[in-house]
Each structure stands twice: as C-alpha cells, then as structure tokens.
Automatic annotation (TrEMBL), chains A, B:
Organism: Parathielavia hyrcaniae
InterPro entries for the chain: FAD/NAD-bd_sf, FAD/NAD-binding_dom, NDH-2, NDH2-like_C
Keywords linked to the UniProt accession: FAD, Flavoprotein, NAD, Oxidoreductase
Signal peptide from the UniProt entry: none
Record-annotated External alternative NADH-ubiquinone oxidoreductase-like C-terminal domain positions: 449-506
Domain FAD/NAD(P)-binding: 13-332
Pfam families for the chain: NDH2_C, Pyr_redox_2
Protein name: FAD/NAD(P)-binding domain-containing protein
One Gene Ontology term of the molecular function aspect: NADH dehydrogenase activity
SUPFAM superfamilies per record: FAD/NAD(P)-binding domain (SSF51905)
PANTHER family: NADH DEHYDROGENASE, NADH DEHYDROGENASE (EUROFUNG)
Family assignment from sequence similarity: Belongs to the NADH dehydrogenase family.
Amino acid sequence: MLSSQSSDVQKERVVILGSGWAGYAFARTLDPAKYERVIISPRSYFVFTPLLASTSVGTLEFRTIIEPIRRLPGKIGFYQGWADDIDFDHKTIRIEANAAEEAASKTVVPAPATPPSDPGVADPKAMTAQGESAKKGDLIHIPYDKLVIACGAYSQTFSIEGVREHAHFLRDIGDARRIRLRILSLFEQCSYPQGSDHLTDADKRQLLHFAIVGGGPTGIEFAAELHDLIREDLAPLYPHLMPLVSITVFDVAQKVLPMFDQALAKYAMDTFARQNIQVKTEHHLERLRLVDGELGRRHGALRIKIKEHGDEEVGAGMVVWSTGLMANPLIAKLAAKQLASPGPNPPADASAARSLLRDPRTGGIMTDAHLRARTSTIQPANEASPHPKARGILEDVYVIGDCAVMENEPSLPKTAQVASQQAAHLARRLNAGGAGAVAGKAFRYRNWGTLTYLGGWKAIHQSEVDALRGWVAWVVWRGAYLTKSMSVRNKILVPIYWMISWLFGRGISRF
Amino acid sequence: MLSSQSSDVQKERVVILGSGWAGYAFARTLDPAKYERVIISPRSYFVFTPLLASTSVGTLEFRTIIEPIRRLPGKIGFYQGWADDIDFDHKTIRIEANAAEEAASKTVVPAPATPPSDPGVADPKAMTAQGESAKKGDLIHIPYDKLVIACGAYSQTFSIEGVREHAHFLRDIGDARRIRLRILSLFEQCSYPQGSDHLTDADKRQLLHFAIVGGGPTGIEFAAELHDLIREDLAPLYPHLMPLVSITVFDVAQKVLPMFDQALAKYAMDTFARQNIQVKTEHHLERLRLVDGELGRRHGALRIKIKEHGDEEVGAGMVVWSTGLMANPLIAKLAAKQLASPGPNPPADASAARSLLRDPRTGGIMTDAHLRARTSTIQPANEASPHPKARGILEDVYVIGDCAVMENEPSLPKTAQVASQQAAHLARRLNAGGAGAVAGKAFRYRNWGTLTYLGGWKAIHQSEVDALRGWVAWVVWRGAYLTKSMSVRNKILVPIYWMISWLFGRGISRF
C-alpha cells in the first residue's frame, strides 16, 4: 500500500509470493513490528483446503473457509496478480496485476511444456493464455529486501486429452462453487418428466454418474462428502432418481490412500462398499470428451476412455480431477536465469556464474536445511571469505511449500502440514533475528499424521503415534486443524454451519 | 415429480408460474393436503429481496436470504425453466426447461419490443436470445387443473443505449453477487502503486464513482449499504483511496422516495448529505458506454451521458440500475391468444370469441376483485346460464403479483407487500373451498407501510398509522418482515450474520 510504504521505510520489506498454506502461514507468523509484509498472490484470500470438499457439497458456506489476506492482523501490503518475473540482482519483482472479477478463484491448469527437455513443467506462455481474464493485466514492479517464494504447484493432467477442458479440479473456492452448481444442476436436469424431447433413464444414469480420478485423501473425501449430500439431502427431494445415481473413484495405483496402513485402508474401503461408492484401482484414464449431440451439448454429458476397458467408454455427468501436481511455470523461468552476483557484497570470486538449483525429479527449487534457495555452483570453501552464508545459497531468497525441495529431506510430501511448518519455522527464525538466526537452526518436520473423512461422520487418522477410526478421529483432528489455522470469525461460523446443516440440511440452491 | 404425480391423482393440480413474492407465498400458503402444488420458475429458490442489498455488500451471506423451493414443507413439484406458452383450452403449459449451471440467477433484461404498437412490452424472441444459457433447453408439457400466473415483471431500461450491456441490476441473488465482485474488484484494481503502466488518480476517481439510477427504496438502500461497506470495511483497508470514492443517486423525478412524507424524505436526504452521498434529481440518463482504450477494456470504466449535462459525460466504475418495470413478455403472448371456449362446460353462446384482457397502461393482465383473470369480451348476463362465474373471467386461471392489475384497485403498487397479500388471500380462499370460496370474498389491500434503510443503522418507515425514523424503524420493521417470510434456518442465520459482520466486519473476499 502506498501509505504503508511511506511509514515503513526503516523496516526490511519481506515480499511473499503466494497466499496458500505456506505463504499465508508465513505472513501470519512474521512480526509486522519487525518487518514490512507484502503478499503477492493471484487470489485475495487463503483457502482452508481441508474443508473445501465440504463447501463443494453445501455443508459449509464458501466464505467460512477463506481468510481475506487484507484482514491479517497488523499492517499488511497486498498486490493481487501473478509474479511474472524476478530480478534477483536488483531485488525487484514484476507482477502481472489481475484484480478482475473472480480472477483466479478457479484452478489454472497450464498446457504441457513445449520443450520435452523440461519434464512435467508447464509452459508459462500457455499458462497465461489459460489465465482467468482474457485481458492482460497491468505490469507493476515491487522491490524487496527479503523474498519468500511460496507460489505452490499446479495441477498435473499428465497431458491427458480433454482433462483441462472437461474435468473439475478442487483446489480453490471457485472450483468448489462450480462443482456444487454442477451437481445440483445435474439432478435438476434429470428431474424433468417424460416428454417428447427428454432424457431417457439411460441418459440420466450417465449424467448421474460422478467420477473421481485420484484415490488420495482429497478424492476420497470428496467422494464421501458427495455421498452424504446425495443420501441426506438429495434423496428426499429426488427419490425417483436415486436408483440412477452412482459414484466411482478411479486410481492408477494398486490401492487408494497409500499413506494409511492396511487396517485403516480396509476400514475405508469397507465403509465405501457399504455406501455403494465404487473404487476402481489400476485404472488408467486415457481421454475425456463431451458426448456428441444434444446430450453433450445441452447437458454436458462426458465420456471417459479407460485403458483397461479398451474402446468401450464410461459415461459421466461430472469428472473431478484430484491427482498429481506439476511445478509452477515461474520456477522454470527463475531457474533459467543467470545470477550476476552471489549477494549484496560479492566475495572475491564473484565471477562464478550461477543460477537457482532445481530438483530434476519434481522441478522444484532446492533449498538447504534452512529453507534458503540453493544455487547451482557452490563456490570453493574459503575461510577468508567474509560471507560464509554466501556459499551456494542465494542471499535473502527463501523457498517454502510445494515449490521447495529440501536437500536434507528431499522426499517431504507436498502437503499443507509441510508447507505450514516450513512457513512457521522460517518466520519465527526471522523474528528471532533475521538471516543470522535463520542459519542458526535447521528445519525439522513433525508429522501430525493424515486425516481422511469417509462420510457418515466417520474418518480415519494415521500417524506414527496413532491409528484412529470412526467419528472420534473426525472430531479430534478436524477440530485441531480448525482451531489452529482459522480466524475467530470462522471458528464461530464453521461449527454454526455444521449445526445448521445437520438440523436443516445443506444449502441446495444454485446461483 | 413422477412420484408425486402417481400419488396425487385424486387431488386438483395447481400449477404456479413464478417463485417470487407472489408465487412462493401462494405455494407456501396453499394446503398440500387439498391440492397438488407444482411450481414452474426459472430459479430454484425464493429471494428475500429486502435484504438483497445487504448481501451485495457482504453484510449477509447470499444463501441466508434465499429459500429453496424444493424445501417447502409438504410435497411440492418443481420444474426449473421458463413457461414458454400456455394452452388454456387443453389446460397445458409448455416449459422451456433450463437447469443449466447458474441459470437465471441473473436478471434477464429483454430487448425492447419490435412492434411499437405494444408499448413497454418486451419481445419474447429477443428475450430468449438474452437468456442465461446459450443452448436452448428441452421443451416439456405440464397439465394443470388450476393455474396461478405469478411470473412478475421485467426491468425496464426505457431502451436507453448501453444499459442492458453495462448496468448492474439488483433483483436476483446472482445480481447481488456480481455487484459485490465488481465493488471489491474496483478497489483492488485501484490499490496498485505508481508504475510505468498504471492508473492515474483521475482514472481511479472515475473507477471509484458508484452511480445508482433510480431513487426508489431499492436504489436508496443500495446506496446506503454501499456507503456502510466503504466506510466501515474498505476505509481501513484502502485508506489512501478514500478521497477518490464517491456515490451518486440519479433520478428523473423532482424528489426521491416519493412514497415518504416531506419530513421523512428530508431526514433521508440530510442523512445522505452527512454521508456524502450525492442525490441528483431531475437528471435524465441518455446513454451508458464503456470508455475507449485500456481504461475501458482492462478496467471496465464507464461513461454516463446525462441530458442535463449536455455532451460532457460522467465517469463511473459501476452503474446500478434500479428503476422501472416492464410487463413480462409471456403476458403479451398469452393475451394475443384466442380462447376457444369460456370454460370447461360451455354455456349457450360459447361462440363468443375472447382473449385475456390486458391493462393498456402497464401491459399487465386485468383481474376481478377475486384475482381471477379477466377476458376481453363479457358475455351477456343471462340468469339461465348455469355458469355465472363464467361471465368475463377465465375459469381456473388466477393472476397475482406484478403481472396482475385488479380492476377494482387498478393502481396498487408493484411491491412485495401487494404480491404476498394477494398470494395469501387467494391460497386461503382455495383452501377454504376452491373456486366457489374464491368468488365469495374480494381481496383487500392492507398497507403496512414502506421501510427504507439509510445506512449507519438508520431507517425510515412510513404508513397510514406511523412515520418512524432512526434505528427503531429498522429493527422493528426488518424484524417483522424477517419473522414473517423466512424459514427457521434463515431466521437463525440472518441475526448471526448481522452479529458476525458487526463484530468482525463484512465478507470482503472475491471468488
């Protein structure tokens, strides 16, 4: 903000790219009395993703699971838009501003990269083309003293035909809204009576088939929430349609919920079996397309081609895609840059050309145990060097969350837990005394375990210390999460909505 | 619904066109034990319009002011779509089904009628062209025993250039949502700092000018709510933008709020003056257009041409249109039909050709004092006629709400009060004993007075018996309305949101 700039001249400006679990948690923990906080993000809020599936079926109101960035306690600067490029030498970020209506409340899925040399990384140009607003936004430049890269990862479609165009994703609040509209609209469309020009029961059976691709916690939870919505709220309103409804979860792996032990995974599958949710493992989706003719044009019916089924396609009214992540195109762009100087005050052999170091497997940026960005060429150790910290790291640039790969723990999962723990660690170190303090203590990941909701108030929770199942797991861990990451406003509203939905049913109106 | 059809064979089917104040209140009051209720409406819910402005500024959550039709107590049939045509002789309604995502949550503004012979009435074709979903819906046919026409009226643009394309309307929940997105987006767009490619303060002054056209309660209330949002929620977040913000209400009349007495109207104007809301009476809007170049293309800046200002246009970031209603195109279509027989068992002179009688001034359907549709040719009074009620009325067809004009009280205002009172009266008479009971007791309008919110917890209320002002008026009358027309769910949620918004501020995230 113009005003904040003027009054914070003496403070170091920390610019944060992203407002997800990493970026928001960092901004929340960083002390505004010690630093000027500036967030750059395409969305103006943080989404509490564990409850996203609940909002997509109307158990919760959308706004109860998002936290507006501008409402963070203490002074906060915010620019809505995409970080378009970074000049590390002059410590400046170029932003493509985008404050258009509904900008970026929908998951952006980049086109596959043009150079095959760069596996699983999106093509920035193709991505901007896919951006929310057709019109390109203003370009603005923001200087920083310290930079925290927390811009996350994109959904991975594995270049499967039709997925970008026809599948629903479930990563942002706008996605949840579209999914909810689609579900309710499908039931409405199938509720019309017999008539000259109407849907046959076979058509309706296709439209009321809900396919979920990806058997991780997100996909499983969505299937469970969807089942609750249909059984508890839609069955009384559309009784004659119930025989035509079906839910299927597809996964390429041998088992779903890989992070759970046998007993819990079996418990999940038994629960699903009782709920008539089909789980089809070792199924490979090859293509997604709109049905030809009226059924596709008017009602948006889809056809799923599955390798194991040969040419015979599966019909569906909606396909929810919840599998795989790909590196953010910005990362590829940044890693390609040559860094002129290793730091503010260059040591002797500054000539050594270097660039950001990327993890060849995931395409993320490598960091040291302190979440500092690694550079590709390590300078020779030199006791005389006045800048030991300059060795192989890019000063004042930190990377956290899905776009970071820690060299000491390279296989940390891309989860909210990892992101928020990294964020809190880095912010606390900076509060404790800047770059020096950061170098003082390495990051350690504490696994609180994984919670997955299975429908009918049942859930499973797995960690090193416990293996909970049933409603206890649900209450304990949802509650824990909630109190941990939400504002007072939402701590009040979420339980109220749980009660309201339980008493009076979920919201079922489309608008 | 298929199921309900089978089980209700013995009951008379009452088909209701529309789910606004008239249609919803009627369906709510009609006894499902005595009649099979079937609602046909483009939207799947009833909107509590007095709180629409509150949702458009985030004081309330959208879903708290809508009631899903399918959640009406007792069995209810519902088909989402537009009544496309009615065959009165065979008692069948043709519906253009439309259950597409977000169908009709946005105000549809028909193009002006092609035949100038038909003043102020929209052209059905032009309207369908303007319909929400490009794809035409299935056509389905629904038979009725009794028909209640409650399809309301459309927004009147007086064929002013650019209004349909660029103005925001405020009649449905989708409108409120779009308005909220636009307001917040405008502040976000103006919050970017100085830069090579950025908005000047002059540009921002234009974008942050909010113009409201129409000085009736709706326009005035929106201006007031917008002022509250800006002063209480946006000022702390965008302090540097406040000097650039302005709100103007334009009206063609000499004074706004014509239904209020001098003292209350003056109180309203004084309140607005203190809030720096400009009220410009006797101003005629002549054209609305997008600014040329980036400012228009990228930021959607508008230019308003006003007769009194000559060629010099007024800039604005948003124009909210809340003035005038025009007859529903369906009415014109129905009135044009020749009715073959006057009733189920035709009297002697059945040959007498007739059609629905329309009010030449407003284009609505004339009804008698019992809300029965009037026909154009009255048959000669004939004591021997076995069907006295067949004289000049169309049997089993009733008209209520904005599309009805009562011959005994032709100048009733087009308000929620009139609509809901007519609805309740008709439903109670039918409950009391069908067509006979309807003829027994004429409708009388009771004016509960008009409430208008002025911002800062102040309101004014005017009726024959009182002239209230200040917060008392607000509490008493909002409360009264609320308890009268809402479900338990929303009776709980609305006060909770009032409290939450008051404690923690309004919802300010865009998605």
